[in-house]
Automatic annotation (TrEMBL), chain A:
Entry annotated with the keyword Cell membrane: no
A molecular-function term among this protein's GO annotations: oxidoreductase activity
Keyword Oxidoreductase among record annotations: yes
Pfam families to which the protein is assigned, alphabetical: CCG
Keywords, ordered alphabetically: Oxidoreductase
InterPro entries associated with the record: Cys_rich_dom, HdrB/HdrD_reductase
Organism listed in the record: candidate division WOR-3 bacterium
Name this polypeptide is given: Disulfide reductase
From TrEMBL, chain B:
Keywords tagged on the record: 4Fe-4S, FAD, Flavoprotein, Iron, Iron-sulfur, Metal-binding, Oxidoreductase
One of the Pfam families matching this protein, by short name: Fer4_6
Basic and acidic residues bias: start-end ranges: 1-10
Presence of keyword Oxidoreductase: yes
Spans annotated as Disordered: 1-31
GO MF: 4 iron, 4 sulfur cluster binding; metal ion binding; oxidoreductase activity
Family of this protein: Belongs to the HdrA family.
PANTHER family, sorted: COB--COM HETERODISULFIDE REDUCTASE IRON-SULFUR SUBUNIT A, FERREDOXIN:COB-COM HETERODISULFIDE REDUCTASE SUBUNIT A
Organism: candidate division WOR-3 bacterium
Identification of the protein by name: CoB--CoM heterodisulfide reductase iron-sulfur subunit A family protein
Length: 284, 682
């Protein structure tokens, strides 16, 4: 069984527990394992773009250094962790930053065993496992389900560094949706802002932003929105009245399609319970 | 004028006289039969050269070089007195080679060679030492510049020392032209050539001629109806006794060379006998199959048996086999039943026709950028986002709505229309980096025409810059603003559907804010791109294309309608985006070039071509594989390579590829290259 070093990050241990659980279980069905790296620390939560942000990068880099004990690939799930870790890695990889790299690694003062590739869970599905293999393991095809894949900003930008997908019309989750037997909805707001951290001090702005995303997804006929970002999930799911489109982590529906028990997938954590909709589609 | 009767030239075909066989004449192995007498003339080019290179010193050094009997300098050698000095010196000093140290040979090589020829020196015995572009302009230090100029001059002398006297190769010209593409460019070129008295073969892939111009409503900046000004030309073309029209056809293959091309034309099956058909149109009325009409850009439908437009030339329908119920399922046959002249031929197949021509005009045209590349603009996904050509069809009196502006989703008259300029143009990330040139004007026109049709309608144009370089263009743009069009300066970031509206996110860079516009219809001025079929043909013909698929002209300023391949000329948007007046002007220019060629019985080709030493050649065929022009072929019977000098452009690739050293280049032989190299590293 293939095993990957895994960085869950803080949110997946708290608010987004269902993302972590469903992802691990689903990957096990697909014949791979997420091995949680030891002694992981905060990724930094946002990537500071200040020119000199020595301290701000230490946490992220420390995680990369520690993951190097386990292997050459570090898998993440939270969009923010993915963004921060991958950019921190790119920063120390840049030959122009050789001095900084040395400074940071000296400060961390732990063995950096090998170069580590920071990837997203979706990369593992797309590149290592492949859609055909995913399709072959689908026990309960999500037939009749129309899903809007919402990527937000952190998964795809800055495009040159993340090199994850088309920054304006990303496709990877849509491909997954297809592999699971559901129908991807080609909506317009795949990468528009959910409101982000404005939810803290300008709830009105965040509410308006996230409402537009949902409105557009609904206009294109979606039954639910899927995402990989805990902040997006929170803003879309919670900053509104308690009705409307369910907002799920893609791993929850992946798990459902792979035949996991619905009770294991944390559907009850969603503010808008997706279960009535799934039951109506005959998927529960 | 010969009325194109001489279709088959007297001496032409695969082995034109004085070409292939002549190339087997061995040049004298030792070119220096007696001591060479070289004259060196150094040009000051004002201060261009003399400001950096110490010309008098260079002249003194040149005098000591081997073979040099005279060295002189002059302010401007290209001037009349400058040329006279060279002519006089050739006679007085009995020169048998001349080296002019001056600017690039692309500028004045011909000038000096002609001057030498006037004084009795063979044209190919004058060489240029480029001490301006390759020395004076790129060197600061005067000592270094003078040394480098000396090296360059010495190399040119070494080369000249091995120059032989050569005579240009004459090729007979088949005075008949092929024009590919019958849009306004091809039509204009064909008419100009035909009206001068020569036969033209005009090939068009669509069932009728007229190209994109036939789709347009009215034309800027005069607002004259596109059909009204185009149809006199299409009618004249269709009826011209010297224009042979092949519609619904494509060029499959071109062989031969300048003056003597053989063209194979693929005629798609039309399922209608063009001779029997009278164009009455009964079949099109009765046909039960309806499909989206490409010509209407998704704004209207047509039958399976169709013509593009009522004024079609030729006025004969064709059957779209994919849409035809009879051809797909074997039942129906309505068109055959109603046809009064029994012209329907369900068993029609594709046919090939051969034509022989002397010159080819490529007028392969444009398309609009594939909307998949602009996913943020919603076209293809949001029904009320359409491109400029689709809007032309909505405005056109002969279009699917008879000129009434109705939006595609629900047929309502849009009260708010947003026009988006640079949808894919000037956009390095999503589209094309270049400016499509016509969009500023046609968008202004479309806004004006929309306001004429819908008086209480609002037209907003999102633009980055408005470019109006043309006669009457700026005034036309002013007219659009005067008539109430809102111009909003900023790029559009996103277009999406909300309810029955189309939302447009843009920025207003003059007010410094983001804007959200609500529209009933959005019209994208999509980037003009080279027609994919044209690109495919050009690649097969080994034409040079720029990075975006546009045909490359021989010189961007001075040879704008010629290509680097002899006998091929360019016209219209296949060469780059342009409006109708520019297209017509360019088409007439291409026709003039063809006529200049047809004005001569023979055309002459530089004899500085590849040459095979048959004693050495083993017939391995590397040269044939390397040749980009198809000029070298291995003669399988004799087992040696043979050069068709009429096709050879003298690039030298075969000489490099030849493993045995049999292939070489006239007046650029291996020996002269060795000696030049020796001089260079001395």
């Amino acid at each position: 069984m293939a095993s990957y070093a895994y960085y869950p990050g803080c949110t997946l241990y708290t608010k987004a527990r269902e993302l972590d659980l469903s992802a691990r279980k689903a990957l096990a069905v697909l014949g791979a394992e997420l091995e949680e790296m030891p002694a992981w620390v905060c990724c930094g939560a946002i990537y500071n773009t200040a020119d000199d942000d020595f301290a701000g990068r230490i946490g992220a880099t420390r995680n990369i250094v520690r993951a190097s004990a386990l292997g050459d690939t570090l898998v993440t799930l939270c969009a923010a962790c993915y963004n921060v870790l991958k950019r921190a890695k790119a920063r120390i990889d840049d030959p122009a930053n050789a001095v900084e790299r040395e400074r940071v690694l000296n400060f961390i003062d732990e063995p950096y065993e090998r170069e580590v590739r920071v990837v997203h869970y979706l990369d593992v599905l797309r590149r290592d496992i492949g859609w055909d293999a995913v399709k072959a393991k689908v026990a309960k095809p999500l037939a009749g389900l129309k899903l809007a894949s919402y990527y937000g900003c952190l998964m795809v930008r800055p495009a040159a560094v993340l090199d994850f997908d088309d920054p304006e019309d990303p496709q990877v989750m849509d491909e997954l949706v297809r592999a699971l037997g559901a129908e991807p909805v080609r909506f317009d707001f795949k990468t528009e802002c959910c409101g982000g951290y404005l939810v803290v001090n300008r709830k009105d702005v965040a509410r308006e932003s996230s409402a537009r995303v949902l409105e557009n997804a609904r206009a294109w006929g979606a039954d639910a929105v899927i995402t990989t970002c805990p902040l997006c999930q929170y803003n879309l799911d919670r900053l509104r009245d308690r009705d409307g489109l369910p907002v799920l982590y893609f791993t929850q529906l992946l798990g459902l399609a792979l035949g996991l028990e619905p009770d294991e997938l944390g559907f009850d954590n969603c503010a808008v319970d997706p279960r009535p909709m799934l039951a109506e589609k005959g998927l529960l | 004028m010969a009325e194109g009767k001489s279709r088959r030239p007297e001496v032409a075909g695969p082995e034109p006289a004085g070409t292939q066989s002549a190339s087997t004449d061995k040049p004298a192995i030792s070119p220096v039969s007696r001591r060479p007498r070289v004259g060196v003339f150094v040009c000051h080019c004002g201060i261009n050269i003399a400001g950096v290179v110490r010309v008098p010193e260079l002249v003194e050094r040149a005098k000591t070089m081997p073979g040099v009997v005279v060295a002189r300098d002059y302010q401007y050698c290209c001037s009349d007195p400058g040329q006279q000095i060279i002519r006089d010196s050739i006679k007085a000093d009995k020169l048998d080679r001349v080296v002019v140290a001056c600017c690039s040979p692309t500028l004045h090589e011909a000038t000096f060679r002609k001057a030498g020829e006037e004084a009795g020196l063979n044209y190919y015995r004058t060489e240029i030492a480029n001490i301006r572009e390759q020395c004076a302009w790129v060197t600061k230090d005067r000592d270094e510049a003078t040394d480098k100029a000396e090296d360059i001059t010495r190399l040119a002398i070494a080369r000249a020392t091995h120059d032989e006297s050569l005579e240009p190769v004459g090729v007979t010209v088949n005075k008949r032209a092929l024009v590919v593409g019958a849009g306004i460019a091809g039509i204009q070129a064909a008419l100009d050539i035909a009206n001068a008295g020569y036969e033209v073969v005009l090939v068009e892939k669509q069932p009728s001629i007229g190209g994109h111009m036939a789709q347009l409503s009215e034309t800027f900046p005069t607002l004259d109806c596109s059909q009204c000004i185009l149809t006199p030309r299409t009618v004249e073309t269709g009826r011209h006794s010297r224009i042979k029209l092949h519609t619904y056809s494509e060029v499959a293959e071109v062989s031969g060379y300048i003056g003597n091309f053989k063209v194979r034309i693929r005629q798609k099956p039309r399922y209608v006998d063009f001779d029997a058909c009278t164009g009455c149109g009964l079949c099109m009325e009765k046909c039960p199959a309806r499909v989206e009409a490409d010509f209407e850009r998704g704004m209207g439908k047509r039958r399976a048996i169709y013509r593009l437009l009522p004024q079609a030339v030729p006025n004969r329908p064709v059957i779209d086999a994919e849409a035809c119920i009879y051809l797909q399922k074997g039942k129906c046959g309505v068109c055959a039943k109603v046809c009064p002249t029994q012209a329907i031929r369900y068993d029609d197949t594709e046919k090939f026709v051969e034509e022989e021509v002397g010159a080819i005009v490529l007028a392969t045209g444009y398309e609009l950028l594939d909307h998949e590349k602009m996913s943020a603009y919603g076209i293809g996904r949001v029904p009320d986002v359409i491109d400029g050509l689709a809007f032309e069809r909505l405005l056109s009196a002969s279009g699917p709505t008879q000129g009434e502006v109705k939006r595609p989703s629900d047929g309502r008259v849009p009260k708010k229309v947003v026009f988006v300029q640079c949808a894919g143009s000037r956009d390095r990330e999503h589209g094309m980096p270049y400016c499509s040139k016509i969009c500023c004007m046609y968008t202004a026109k479309q806004a004006i025409l929309y306001k004429h049709r819908v008086h209480d309608g609002e037209a907003t144009i999102c633009y980055i810059d408005v470019r109006t370089p043309g006669k009457g263009f700026e005034e036309f743009y002013q007219r659009a603003t005067d008539e109430g069009t809102t111009y909003l300066r900023g790029k559009v970031s996103k277009i999406f559907r909300q309810g029955d509206k189309v939302m447009v996110w843009a920025s207003d860079t003059l007010a410094g804010r983001k804007v959200e516009l609500e529209a009933d219809l959005v019209v994208l001025a999509s980037a003009v791109v080279a027609s994919p079929d044209g690109v495919e043909l050009a690649k097969r013909l080994k034409m040079q294309l720029d990075g975006h698929g546009f045909l490359t002209e021989a010189h961007p300023k001075l040879r704008p309608v010629e290509t680097l391949t002899g006998g091929f000329f360019l016209a219209g948007c296949g060469q780059g985006p342009k409006d109708i007046p520019d297209t017509v002007a360019q088409a007439s220019a291409a026709a003039a070039k063809v006529l200049a060629m047809f004005g001569q019985d023979k055309i002459f080709h530089a004899p500085t071509t590849a040459w095979v030493d048959e004693d050495i050649c083993v017939g391995c065929g590397n040269c044939e594989l390397t040749c980009a022009y198809g000029a070298v072929k291995v003669d399988l019977q004799r087992g040696v390579a043979a050069v068709n000098v009429a096709l050879c452009e003298g690039c030298g690739a075969c000489s490099v590829a030849c493993p045995s050293g049999a292939m070489s280049h006239r007046n650029f032989s291996k020996k002269s290259i060795y000696e030049m190299t020796e001089e260079a590293v001395r």
